[in-house]
Design brief:
The structure holds two protein chains of two kinds. By secondary structure, chain A is of the alpha+beta class. Chain A is 20% helix and 38% strand. Chain B folds into four domains: 106 residues, PH-domain like (Roll), CATH 2.30.29; 212 residues, ABC transporter type 1, transmembrane domain (ABC transporter transmembrane region fold, Up-down Bundle); 95 residues; 246 residues, Rossmann fold, CATH 3.40.50.300. In chain B, the strands form five sheets. In chain B, strands 13-16-17-10-18-19 form a six-stranded mixed β-sheet, with helices on both faces. Chain B has a four-stranded antiparallel β-sheet with strand order 1-2-3-4, sandwiched between helices. A four-stranded antiparallel β-sheet of chain B has the order 9-8-11-12, covered by helices on one side. Chain B is extended, with a radius of gyration of 37 Å. Chain B has 22 helices and 19 strands. Chain B starts with 8 loop residues before the first helix and ends with a helix. In chain B, a hairpin with a 2-residue loop joins strand 6 and strand 7. The chains are: A alpha+beta, B alpha+beta. At the A-B interface, helix 2, strand 9 and helix 3 of A face strand 6, strand 7 and helix 9 of B.
């Protein structure tokens, strides 16, 4: 039964998977990633989009041209050699910016806002979080995204591992 | 938006060097480094140079002219400033979302500078953080709760309550009376116990008298309390009503621009929530506060005068007790918030599953949904049970702690009585007064927060009341009977003045002419009609109606002579009759039916069980898109406006309904100056002329045939439409 349905899906559309053998990624002088394919297609600048930015960072990465049309999909980064993997990961890191909070210096609450002073894997940062809906998103059992008043996001890998006062606060904001 | 930041010292010098004396035009933070770390870097623009720095060094220094295609690109939770430099697409700087809007402007300025133009981008002071303390303003408000001059607000509030002062004063006096009685009763007890409840004394009459006195006084106090409460409720209610009317009335008068900036929920809160809080404050909290303060002072004095040693014993543990109580309350707040959220989550889940029950069943996922619900439910149960358990332990414990004072008094006081240094009656009186101490103390600890909250609410109410509507009538507005000639003279407008949505639009429309408006989404079509309706005022240029500037005409006259049939047909909660009559409540039923017939709505209305009395809107009958459109057309017909605004609905309806709507529309637009944002070819073919708006400018203007011949934007749009409608025609 399952095979049948997958079969009929395959009839309609074929996903173009980009395999290491057929493509070459390079970083241009300006800092953007370029792609050249075996077929001769050349793209001065490609944008990479993760299909599963929250649940699976290294698989199913859509490679798109500058008009946002999909060129193909990288099924898994592991297929590629070390150097290319690094190039692609760097490019992805540029697009997706969600620093992970490594430690909390202080959180103060006042008048419907909480003022956070934290250390992240991208350096220290201070930000303001609104009390109410949408400020803290739970994406896993203890994985939380904190969204500040401007829209910046910060990830807490496991909020239960924080100081009890802070983890209680996080819980109350969820 | 602030676009000129100060550079810290060592950087400032370095940058000045690089700019070779040119003044800094813009300087914005670049707070993310190219390799993804938080840095305190900057992007600095002078007239000819662009300098990017991190905390200490200059990372890039280039001439603006050497780059082209400057753009601020939004990525995921950050952004990059990019350009084509020496032929290559290049990343110039990176920033967090906090500065995304700034870089959009910077990129614009760069494009303008690169072409040698004067940048039309301006730096304005920040408007979402308080200039005094730097805290973010609460959403939609410009009231900083920390810096608010609460006393000023209080004064203003009491000014507003002026008509109610006598009543409020009376309420306070009554409260004092009640308190007075409560303070006197222990004395009577003492007299009773010490004077007459001793073995050997036998004066039943006096005892009875005294007991009756106590009973009578308590009854009195209760009675006065009832009267006072009634009084407060009435006064408070009237005051709140005044406030609500003020706010709501003002909201109605304010321009669409102001209302757009606020969320509906926020405004609703101000009309109901904030006024309620203010009402509560005036009604109970303020008068109680004064009273409790007096009681506290009075009781303390009495206690110390009776026996300073015992008094000290009573006062001594109070701060500790209060602290313990406060901590407990904080804890309760935290855990119950969690419980409440879980409860909320379970409810949402339930609602989700039940509303989607058709899908659940269609895909056979019942078991999975049951499991999901069970899991959430169990979580809630666990947390609730835990909370209840702890509460049931702590509450009695708290009671005990509060009673500690009494215990001390009894022990030491008892000793005093036994040593005959004090009478039993005195001790009893003392412990009664001691009991009166905790109430006011606890009350007083809440006052600061309540006061702050109430004043903030009051200020939010005043914020709306004080707002000047930015679309106002002139001193002496013209009253004009519109003939229908509409002229756009070089009109430029943007919802945010530095981002024009319409630029240099000029157009003259004859009375009775129908102008079709087409263009890609976001091109500016809806904005154009918003301007004709004078929901916004133009930034540059003029709009004239029959030669008179639209701003000179009284808004009331204008609105009464302009009618709309919009995409979103909004029907108020009411009957069909009420909705059709909305613009003209005094219209006769005869006219309403006529309008409905012309709009091809009469037949389907009559097919409803309740006919024209059918309730529609939020809580009423659900109408289909086509039905709503036709009721809207009937509404507009009844209104009989001189200028008609039509924003065609794109929703697909069946062919027969489509025909009906088309017919109704054709009748509606006859002899009326009409601006129609059209999607259907049929509507466009009826138009006298068609204007094409592209990226905010008037790109093409002419008749249907002439534009087709020109093979421009209009031609392409029509060709695409023809293809899709051919497909649709086949599918029926």
């Amino acid at each position: 039964m399952r095979d049948d349905s997958t079969q009929s899906l395959r009839e309609y559309v074929e996903i173009r998977y980009l395999r290491p053998a057929e493509c070459r990624f390079e970083r241009g002088r300006g800092g953007f990633l370029s792609l050249e394919l075996d077929t001769g297609e050349k793209y001065e600048r490609v944008n990479l989009h993760r299909a599963f930015p929250l649940s699976d960072c290294d698989s199913y990465i859509s490679v798109r041209d500058s008009e946002s049309k999909e060129i193909g999909i990288i099924e898994s980064l592991r297929e590629f050699d070390e150097a290319t993997r690094r190039l692609i990961t760097e490019e992805l890191d540029r697009r997706y910016f969600a620093p992970v909070i490594t430690s909390i210096r202080s959180i103060e609450e006042e008048f419907g806002y909480s003022y956070w002073d934290v250390m992240t894997n991208a350096g220290p940062r201070r930000f303001t979080v609104r009390r109410g809906h949408g400020s803290l998103l739970q994406i896993g059992d203890a994985r939380v995204l904190v969204v500040d008043v401007d829209g910046n996001r910060f990830e807490i890998e496991d909020y239960t591992k924080l100081q009890s006062r802070h983890s209680r606060l996080v819980e109350s904001l969820l | 938006m602030k676009l000129i930041y100060d550079l810290p010292e060592p950087l400032a010098q370095e940058v000045e060097c690089r700019l070779a004396g040119e003044p800094i035009l813009f300087c914005v933070p670049s707070d993310v480094s190219l390799d993804g770390r938080f840095v305190a870097g900057f992007v600095v623009l002078s007239r000819t140079r662009l300098v990017v720095t991190d905390e200490v060094n200059v990372v890039r220094d280039m001439s603006i002219a050497s780059g082209s295609e400057y753009r601020a690109t939004s990525l995921v939770h950050n952004g990059v400033l990019e350009a084509r430099v020496d032929g290559e697409p290049t990343i110039l700087a990176r920033y967090s979302v906090s500065h995304a809007a700034r870089y959009a402007l910077i990129a614009k300025a760069l494009s303008q500078l690169a072409e040698g133009q004067e940048p039309r981008v301006f730096s304005t002071p920040e408007d979402d953080t308080c200039p005094r303390c730097g805290r973010s303003y609460p959403e939609g408000s410009t009231v900083c709760p920390a810096c608010l001059n609460k006393l000023a607000v209080l004064k203003r509030l009491f000014e507003i309550a002026r008509p109610y002062w006598p009543l409020l004063a009376l309420a306070v006096v009554l409260l004092w009376a009640i308190t007075g009685i409560h303070l006197v009763v222990p004395v009577i007890y003492r007299v009773l116990i010490d004077g007459y409840l001793k073995p050997g004394r036998h004066e039943p009459k006096t005892i009875l008298l005294l007991v009756t006195a106590i009973g009578a006084l308590n009854l009195c106090a209760a009675g006065i309390s009832v009267v006072r409460n009634r009084l407060m409720v009435t006064t408070g209610g009237r005051l709140a009503r005044d406030l609500r009317a003020m706010v709501f009335g003002k909201i109605q008068m304010l321009s669409l621009a102001y209302l757009d900036r606020r969320k509906t929920g926020d405004l609703m809160n101000r009309v109901s929530g904030d006024t309620e809080r203010v009402q509560h404050f005036i009604e109970s909290q303020s008068t109680m506060a004064v009273n409790q303060a007096l009681v506290l002072i009075g009781v303390a004095v009495i206690l110390f005068m009776s026996d300073w040693r015992l008094a000290f014993l009573v006062i001594f543990p109070t701060p500790i007790v209060l602290a313990a109580v406060r901590l407990m309350q904080e804890w309760i707040r935290l855990v119950f918030r969690r419980q409440w959220r879980l409860h909320d989550a379970v409810n949402s889940l339930l609602q989700d599953i039940l509303s989607g029950i058709r899908i659940v069943k269609a895909f056979g996922q019942e078991d999975r949904e049951v499991a999901r619900f069970r899991k959430a439910s169990r979580q809630l149960a666990t947390v609730t049970a835990g909370n209840e358990k702890t509460w049931n332990t702590l509450f009695p414990a708290m009671g005990f702690i509060l009673g500690l004072g009494n215990f001390l008094v009894l022990y030491y006081g008892g000793g005093l009585v036994l040593r005959e240094e004090m009478q039993v009656g005195e001790l009893f009186q003392f412990s009664q007064y001691a009991g009166m101490l905790y109430g006011p103390l606890r009350w007083m600890s809440f006052i600061p927060r309540w006061f702050a909250e109430a004043m903030t609410s009051a200020e939010r109410v005043f914020e709306v009341v004080d707002e000047e509507p930015d679309i106002k009538d002139r001193e002496h507005p013209v009253h004009h009977r519109i003939a229908g000639r509409v002229t756009f003279e070089d009109v430029t407008f943007g919802y945010r003045s530095h981002e024009p949505v319409l630029e240099n639009v000029s157009l003259e429309v004859e009375p009775g002419e129908m102008i079709g408006i087409v263009g890609h989404s976001g091109a500016g079509k809806s904005t154009l009609i918003n301007l004709v309706m004078r929901l916004y005022d133009v930034d540059e240029g003029r709009i004239l109606i029959d030669g008179i500037d639209i701003r000179d005409i009284s808004q009331k006259d204008l609105r009464s002579q302009i009618g709309v049939v919009l995409q979103e047909t909004f029907l108020f909660s009411g009957t069909v009759l009420e909705n059709i009559r909305y613009a003209k409540p005094e219209a006769s039923v005869d006219d309403v039916i006529r309008a409905a017939k012309i709009a091809n709505a009469h037949d389907f209305i009559m097919r409803f069980t309740d006919g024209y009395d059918t309730l529609v809107g939020e809580r009423g009958q659900r109408l289909s898109g086509g039905e709503r459109q036709r009721i809207a057309i009937a509404r507009a017909l009844l209104h009989d406006p001189r200028i008609l605004i039509l924003d065609e609905a794109t929703s697909s309806v069946d062919t027969e309904t489509e025909q009906q709507i088309q017919e109704a529309l054709a009748r509606l637009v006859k002899n009326r100056t009409t601006f129609a944002i059209a999607h259907r070819l049929s509507t466009l073919r009826n138009a006298d002329r068609i204007m094409v708006i592209d990226k905010g400018r008037l790109a093409e203007l002419g008749t249907h045939e002439s534009l087709l011949k020109a093979r421009g934007i209009y031609y392409n749009l029509v060709m695409k439409q023809r293809q899709t409608s051919r497909l649709r025609a086949v599918e029926g």
